[in-house]
Amino acid sequence: MKILMVHPHDMFSQAEPWTTRIRNIAKQFKQNNHEVKVVYFPLLNRGNGQSFYSDGIEFIPLSREVGKGNFLKNIRFFIKESKSVDIIHFQKCFHYAALPALIGGFINKKPLHYDWDDWELKIFYYSPRQPWLVGIFIHMLERFIPLLCDTISVSSLRLKQECLNYGIKENRIFMAPVGADLDLFHPRISPVRIRERYNIDTPLVSYIGQLHGGQYAEQFIKAAKIVLNSHENITFMVVGGGYRLEELKKLAGALDINERIIFTDAVVHKEVPLYMAAADIAIACFEDNDITRCKSPLKIAEYMSCGKPIVASNVGEVNTMLGGAGVLTEPDNPEDLARGIIKLLGDEPLRKRLSVKARQRAEEIYNWENTARNLIKAYVLAVDKV
After folding, report:
1. Do 100 and 13 share a structural domain?
2. Does residue 56 form part of some domain?
3. Whether this model's pTM surpasses 0.90
4. Which residues have a Cβ under 8 Å from the Cβ of 142 and sit 6 or more positions away?
5. Do 353 and 377 share a structural domain?
6. How far apart are CA 382 and CA 386, in angstroms?
7. Is 185 a domain residue?
8. Per-10-residue mean pLDDT, the chain, length 386
9. Residue 187 lies in a domain
10. Measured at the alpha carbon of residue 216, what is the angle toward residues 257 and 304, in degrees to the nearest 5?
11. If DSSP codes are grouped into helix, strand and coil, which group holds residue 372?
12. Nearest Cα residue to 57 out of 92, 10, 101, 24
């Protein structure tokens, strides 16, 4: 099958790491002998349409520059490019990528697949002082794009319910939660390198992830303070970067736990498994809101693939993903999160059982190969429909 995949962000920038999903799915398609082209939109408007290959996949950068001229140029590109493909797959509802892809597909009568992995409108409004006109535009796109596509994949039951509420037939909706690269994230990685780098000789409890809007690392820091009140010989680590990093450091200072919590700032993706390997307990804490109810959190899939004992907030897809392979705590409750951490710190046999079960869950369900298989089923239905 010839697949044209479209993502509105920069596939090769650490500033936009959420492209992990489409890159891994494209990799799986290539390994299964599908022909894959990935159109993406670099930061700083450096997209010139000149393709190149990476890992056998053709990547084509286009400009996200605002303006009628560039928008029409991208439409012409998709009209030309979509003529020779079997299906157009696009992720997220950003107008500069989604609308030209839709127009190209309609003109050439190509099947369209929408991969809905986050509720973009809710994420947009999570950040303060956002322009209300932009919010209305995002709402319109996210509301109507699923109706214009032949098939839809969703990362959560909540997003599936939204599709059903829109009137989309259930047989057109396919579950496609996040996965992990089972070879990159695995339990055999040595913890020594990171522990020596930071001179860690105590049990290590880690939060790994972006520190942008819609992330909840402040709960982890507050829980760390509670745990350290009764367990002094513990090290905590926040792995990741983002605009909230300085705010979180100030919180740790206000709680007087600077000496027991390490902030790494952003790390390159290839080193993330090393940081996971160093952790004795991995944390995935969330609030209960529309954003988190829609997610299948990537960090949980990767924690499980590394065989980590996990403490996670019971919201959205988290319980389904863990399937008993972790300790569930109440969302937005640092006290309960601390109780979960203390429970695992004091029970090594439980940590070992959860570690084994976590890896099994990743191998059976939460890996990119399984996600790609579900998407191919959606593509086949879309192609047959057209």
Report:
1. yes
2. yes
3. yes
4. 93, 119, 120, 121
5. no
6. 6
7. no
8. 94 82 95 94 78 91 88 94 95 88 95 89 66 70 88 94 93 95 96 96 95 85 96 94 92 95 92 97 94 91 98 96 97 97 96 97 96 96 83
9. no
10. 100
11. helix
12. 24
